[in-house]
Design a protein that fits this description.
Structural class: alpha/beta
Radius of gyration: 28 Å
Distance between the termini: 75 Å
Shape: elongated
Length: 309
């Protein structure tokens, strides 16, 4: 503290006069002591702190600047950087870094009072025991200088992985139909073509009750499910993903100018979300990694069962 005091006023009064006055008032310090302290090499902790600040800033920036101390610490540990969580918390405070904070969400889908609705097959239970048992869907909006852009998502409830998405300037049936087609294509590319028994759940928006959309679900063997009460809790998982999208990408990186700008940014965010973002529900691993672990475990189990026959 004394060294800091001298540093603050030395250009105005000089080191020797300040040391003399401090000594006269009971805070004995010689000019040589000041210079020795000033020239002393940085402590091991100070050096380590500077190294860690670089890594913490990098991890925070590489993950859309949305991670709080806990996830920054987890990602650093995944990368092999041995650091205590309390150290990350302390240094993030020094750096002025913090995680994203979610705000309120706005509902975009409007129910069609004349539309025929499927039953609610989910009853707010969004934790299936395997992939491709339950997909949830919803869409949100983005304000741009050229008008509104609507973004639809299809999410696997087991892993929280975004399987399909699409952007459009109107919130009509083709928007949600293209998103489900993307999800079907994603699974098909992975060799999963039989979707019979899969439940597709959404809220009561008219886009999801259209004949074209419901016919497509029937065609591929997917069972339709629609929230019964119209409450946001009926489709809470999809609402959560929408909220993360707005909090982690849309709000901090606006203003948005064009549809194309939103589309490219969404593409990059979805790739990060699926393959690199640490998700607490998944055991603090990315959604795609959780699916890989699931399929790896079940392949191992099937091989073991076959070898024991």
């Amino acid at each position: 503290m004394i060294i800091d005091f001298i540093n603050r006023y030395k250009s105005e009064y000089g080191v020797e006069p300040i040391c003399r006055v401090l000594t006269e008032h009971g805070c004995a310090i010689a000019p040589s002591t000041y210079y020795d302290t000033l020239n002393r090499s940085a402590s091991r902790r100070a050096v380590r702190d500077e190294e860690l600040k670089i890594e913490i800033s990098r991890v925070h920036a590489e993950n859309y600047s949305v991670y709080g101390a806990r996830k920054v610490w987890l990602e650093m540990r995944r990368e092999g950087i041995d650091v205590a969580r309390c150290t990350v918390e302390r240094l993030m405070g020094v750096l002025g870094l913090e995680g994203a904070r979610r705000g309120k969400t706005k509902r975009t889908t409007v129910a069609d009072p004349q539309g025929r609705r499927a039953d609610d097959l989910v009853q707010r239970k969004f934790n299936p025991v395997a992939p491709n048992m339950l997909w949830v869907a919803d869409f949100t909006y983005v304000s741009t200088w050229s008008g509104w852009v609507y973004v639809a998502f299809v999410i696997d409830a087991y892993s929280r992985r975004i399987l399909g998405w699409r952007t459009a300037t109107t919130m009509t049936t083709p928007l949600v139909l293209d998103a489900i087609e993307h999800a079907i294509w994603t699974r098909g590319r992975e060799g999963i073509t039989d979707l019979s028994g899969l439940i597709h759940h959404n809220d009561r928006g008219s886009q999801y009750t259209s004949i074209a959309f419901t016919d497509r679900l029937i065609e591929v063997g997917i069972d339709a499910s629609i929230g019964a009460t119209g409450s946001s809790y009926d489709n809470a998982l999809a609402e959560t993903i929408n909220g993360l999208y707005k909090t982690e990408l849309i709000k901090p990186r606006g203003p948005w100018r064009t549809v194309e700008q939103v589309e490219i940014a969404t593409l990059e965010w979805v790739d990060w979300f699926n393959h690199r973002r640490l998700y607490e529900h998944c055991g603090d691993v990315p959604p795609a990694e959780l699916e890989e672990f699931y399929y790896g475990e079940h392949r191992t189990t099937r091989i073991a069962e076959f070898s024991n026959q």
